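Bumping my old thread because nobody answered last time. Still need a sequence for this structure:
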């Protein structure tokens, strides 16, 4: 997390809402030879005390879970380069704006019998956002889902801490922030997420 408290003032509820909306993050633990990471979709329960993920059995993170492990689930949002020219202020330097939420806790393997419910809950949470009749695993040919699940393990993250960084030029005067929003809105650099980033910068600037 960025050390500047100016970028860490969003309420827990907003950090949670952001993480839930993304529903995908980088799960990391400390392995015997160094950090291990897996990129996973996830689902948080109602009070965000627990998260659920599934991993391939061959994934190094899953193989390291013979005992529960301290873990970090990092959820990243839109990010992009900020040109100092956009601030229309002297003596500014380039920077990068972004949003990220860190969910820390203890990761453990769940009983294999829980896998089907974990998968169904996760898919249902995303399917309900789509403009169509939700897909459900019951649509699959009998036996196919069961065969596919043999390569997966369900895991639970017991959540202990949730923290967020919303680095969106809040450390600049309002006029400079408006200039940055304008610049970001008009930018279209390859590999950047400027359109979504501009929306977040506007929302934070307006206090919404």
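Sorry it took so long. Here it is:
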């Amino acid at each position: 997390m960025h050390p500047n408290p100016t970028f860490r003032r969003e309420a827990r509820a907003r950090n949670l809402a952001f993480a839930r909306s993304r529903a995908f993050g980088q799960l990391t633990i400390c392995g015997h030879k160094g950090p291990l990471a897996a990129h996973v979709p996830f689902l948080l329960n109602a009070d965000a005390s627990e998260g659920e993920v599934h991993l391939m059995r061959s994934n190094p993170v899953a193989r390291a879970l013979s005992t529960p492990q301290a873990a970090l689930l990092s959820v990243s949002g839109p990010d992009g380069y900020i040109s100092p020219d956009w601030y229309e202020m002297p003596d500014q330097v380039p920077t990068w704006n972004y949003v990220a939420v860190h969910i820390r806790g203890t990761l453990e393997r769940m009983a294999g019998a829980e896998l089907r419910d974990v998968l169904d809950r996760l898919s249902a949470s995303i399917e309900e956002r789509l403009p169509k009749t939700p897909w459900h695993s019951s649509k699959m040919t009998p036996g196919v889902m069961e065969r596919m699940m043999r390569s997966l393990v369900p895991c639970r993250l017991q959540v202990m801490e949730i923290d967020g960084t919303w680095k969106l030029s809040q450390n600049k005067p309002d006029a400079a922030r408006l200039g940055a929003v304008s610049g970001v809105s008009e930018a279209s650099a390859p590999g950047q997420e400027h359109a979504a980033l501009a929306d977040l910068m506007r929302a934070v600037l307006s206090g919404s």
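Strands lie at 24-31, 34-41, 43-44, 50-56, 69-82, 95-109, 152-167. Let me know if any region looks off to you.
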